[in-house]
């Protein structure tokens, strides 16, 4: 596939939420490679894996089996630097995956391409394409998914960073609104109002955003009533 491929142009221009981006990646992948099922595995905290945008429950089940068994192509591409991609001709017979492979075959997923999603800084997850037919994919398909995965990884990071900025902005606005309410209610300045929010956050082991949100949602509540709504400090 060339850099001028309209699929890649669409990916480059796409600006959506992380969930929308993942759905688009799957749509474009299945347009580029003639698989019938696909899904994305993303790395989360403490090296856990989570499935996103599966085309069916079969894909989710296959990914769940990888996590339960600590075996499968996603583990290979995420753990082994020298193996950025894996192609499986027949999950029922591949000796590399003696436990997960038969499970995938029982689900009707016989051929697999898994490619790492990575940026220059980190490994984001894996892009997985499946077919019910054994030996459905060739090396050209593998190369296509590899190239696409590199571009898709960047799109995921851009979407997550944009969402993070939006969340941070919303948090600042919410805290500012809560500060203003405290200033008006108690006739105190902005610093004192912020200190009060911080004290409530620390005493009740609740994030500052959570305290601010509670205050904004209960504008008529007194301070004692607000404290009663917060969890008791352990």
From TrEMBL:
Keyword Transcription annotated: yes
An example Gene Ontology molecular-function term: kinase activity
InterPro entries on file: ANTAR, CheY-like_superfamily, GAF, GAF-like_dom_sf, GAF_ANTAR, WH-like_DNA-bd_sf
Domain of life: Bacteria
Spans through the membrane: none
Protein keywords: Kinase, Transcription, Transcription regulation, Transferase
A Pfam match: GAF
Domain called ANTAR: residue spans: 155-216
Name recorded for this polypeptide: GAF and ANTAR domain-containing protein
Organism annotation: Aeromicrobium terrae
Upper lineage: Bacteria, Bacillati, Actinomycetota, Actinomycetes, Propionibacteriales
